[in-house]
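Extended Data, record Cytochrome c domain-containing protein
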Amino acid sequence: MGWPRRILVTAGLATVAAGATLGLGRFSYAPMPDRADLLNPDRYPIQTAFDVLGRRVSRAEADRLNGTEAGRKELSAASGAVAIDPAMVERGRQAFYQETFGNEVFLTDVMGMLDGGLTPTQVALAVAKLGGQGTTNLQVAMARDVRIGDRTYRKGELVPTGLDVPKGGAFIIGIKTFSDRGHLRMGITCALCHAAVDPGTGKVVEGAPNTDLNAGLLMALAKNSSAYFMHASVPEADAKPAAEPEHTGSTGTGLALPDAEAVEAATKVQVASWPPGSFDSSADRVTNPTSIPSSFSAHGEPYSWSGREAVGPFAGLSSLNNNVHAANSDTTQLAAAAPWLFGMEPERYLGIVLRGAATDAFRYKPDGTVAPSEVLRRVDPTPASPGLNSYAVLPTYPATNYVTDNGLFTSVSGEPVNHANNAMSAFQNLLHPPAAKRDSATVQAGRAVFEKAGCGGCHAGPALTNHRIIPAAEIGTEPTRAKAGAKMEARLSPPTLFATDTPFPQPANPVIVPVPLEGDKLAQVQLAWGQGGTEGGYKVPNLVGLAWTAPYLHDSGIAVGPDSANQLGVPGTLYRGIAPDPSNSLRSLVDRDQRAKVIASNKSSDTARTARVTGEGHAYWADAGTGVSRQDQDALIAYLLSIDTLTEPAATP
């Protein structure tokens, strides 16, 4: 479909939406590109018939197991088995692009993403101005002035959002728009972070991280950034009011809340410090963003920057998919855990989150007669579960569970619990980046340097990871990030999940499946979470698709632009709207002299220091100091950038 036709379709959809508002009252839309619009339409073949709590079962093995009663039990839903077939994969792709699990309510009505500096009208105008050419970084004009720290974004000023619109498209990838009886909402899907437009062709690369998504700035420009204060270093949230405490009116004893303007201003500064392409997924009240990972996930377990998503279906990948929406896109569900996570009573916590809500019905009014929890209860679209999103709830909620941070599984009515997350895992495990251009002789020489330098000691296996967690002190990275999950140990339950055929909404007495975790596996998971007396750690990342994932290191700190002399670190690249160059950035990963310059640049930036982005750690070199010539270093980089599929063709995704 050419862009003129798509623009007309956009107008048509708007007309339909208006009609739906007057008639049925509801309408929603999220784009999903055709295969012809993809730069990487090819996928690994489906070779795994079942996933059983992270164990891959081939079709041949499944046939053998189905021949015995014990084998059929192992492949049953009551054992946590997930059957994989083309229909499952297609459901995963659809969910990847279009499933929000209801987060549009929190993002719109509580956080006010559409009521701050950027508005739907300005976004629509920005897309229309593209004229079908597409972009990797939609520039949207400010609708009003917004102050963030010492910086004021002025009305009319263009803001680099990092939102992607493919060539010939008229919609933003990963954004789902809802019209609900005249009320416009915006939700996000996995594709917002884990699909990207190729700047050369304008086509979509499924699974590539959106490395310039300016998530932190977008949240800072929202009306109620305070709804995300628990993901930032905001001591103002602990302060008691200097004057007479505010009261709920429902208790008569008072609900003391901190100064609203101080919390809002501090939260905006903290989240705005995140480098584009980063996100702070840890509700530990410390600003510590990490790079958005790719979804080239086959054999890349464990998942997340620390490897904390390591058990359960698809070796933790379903857990990662779940927690994006069960823990990060709706902070109201954290109220029950606020006493041990944040040292706050649930009402005080919800009071801070809801006090500035964009929609009046969602707003807690300190001078009114309704407590924050009652405000939430009255507007909750999912009254059978905590928070605002669509959740199946384990009996152990809100205790931490190594399969789910909080005992919640985002689920879709009418299909099994957690099904969409499992389907997305099956889909993601088939993705690989576009074929890389390579000089075979140079790549072969680079592989030899890779082995000689000892890189294969950690980067081994089909996806070039040994699946291990490295202690923070050993890897040498910023230490506070690795402790992000430590407080969750205060309320810890055994890892469990629902049987995979459990319907949603869930029945009164669902089947609960225990997830085995013992020995070295338990020790590794505790290290990933910063629990069990450890100081936390970082996972060994897989190396498939490095050409699409710059900047490097868990904190995005190793970033170098096309001008390697002057575009150094996040201050010289991401903060200036300059895309890191993969080759130059990889050189700074393996060359200590170049790395020192990058670290110095990061340390010179107040914003980078706020975000705790340093570029330090992973002091494993392939440079003159280890006897590697510049020519060999070039070959090593060429090899690393050539990795576009699993290195062991027989591996089963």
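Summary. Residues 393 and 535 are 30 Å apart (CA to CA).
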